[in-house]
Design goal:
Blueprint (H helix, E strand, L loop, with lengths): L2 H27 L6 H12 L3 H12 L4 H17 L6 H29 L21 H20 L4 H21 L5 H18 L3 H10 L10
Helix pairs in contact: 1-8, 3-7, 4-5, 4-6, 5-6, 6-7, 6-8, 7-8
């Protein structure tokens, strides 16, 4: 990654963190109470939820938790590993393969810490169409889907430039659908989902700081790096 590219990611991380901070401060100024438009969205969703639409939304929302996100981040590690030149010594290959899942786990710890710090209540249980637990802000499903899809897209972009656009569009659609399903099912306020997206984008951007380390590790395993000095 070039210095200019790292700079762009740093700016993106700073912008996402700033926007998340502004959003959190805005909610704090309301004592975590929902805004009128959030109440309207919650009531509208409850009134426009036929059985088939609810079933589709449940399937989509389930993709944002459990085993699926971790399969996606393991796939990101596998794509990155396959892009490394051979030979791939285990002491270098294993960290590259596990880096995405470890970054996801670290992000979940940060997200949980923020969730318990803000303690924003969820929408009224009478409007729920799915199970939920814990506090509401930031949305865990929105954060998780953003990070796992983003990590996989970034791995594909670095390894297969021809598939870059498809990977990015797929990641955006995946995170958007999962987040919107949480609002539609009545278990999150709209700003919870926005907070999850912003935090996920910030975590992805911050994570690019490890890319230069990965690239140096990759370079050191290339055949030319193993040649004896003349």
């Amino acid at each position: 990654m070039t210095r200019a590219a790292r700079r762009r990611w740093q700016v993106a991380a700073g912008a996402a963190v700033l926007l998340f901070t502004v959003l959190a401060a805005l909610l704090a100024s309301q004592d975590q109470a929902p805004f009128d438009f959030e109440r309207w969205a919650d009531n509208w969703s409850a009134a426009h939820r036929p059985g088939a639409a609810r079933a589709v939304a449940v399937v989509i929302t389930d993709l944002g938790s459990g085993v699926v996100p971790y399969l996606l981040v393991l796939a990101a590690g596998a794509v990155t590993l396959r892009a490394m030149p051979v030979p791939r010594p285990p002491r270098r290959a294993v960290p590259v393969f596990l880096a995405p899942v470890l970054w996801m786990v670290a992000g979940q710890l940060v997200r949980l810490g923020l969730m318990y710090a803000f303690e924003r209540p969820r929408p009224p249980r009478t409007n729920w169409a799915a199970d939920a637990s814990g506090y509401s802000f930031p949305s865990g499903h929105s954060f998780t889907s953003t990070v796992c899809a983003g990590l996989l897209a970034m791995a594909v972009v670095r390894a297969h430039q021809a598939a870059a656009r498809t990977a990015v569009v797929g990641a955006v659609l995946f995170a958007a659908l999962v987040g919107l399903s949480r609002i539609y099912l009545g278990v999150h306020w709209p700003l919870d989902v926005l907070g999850g997206w912003l935090l996920g984008c910030a975590w992805l951007a911050v994570g690019t700081a490890v890319v230069p380390l990965t690239q140096r590790a990759t370079t050191s395993t290339s055949p030319s790096s193993n040649r004896p000095a003349a």
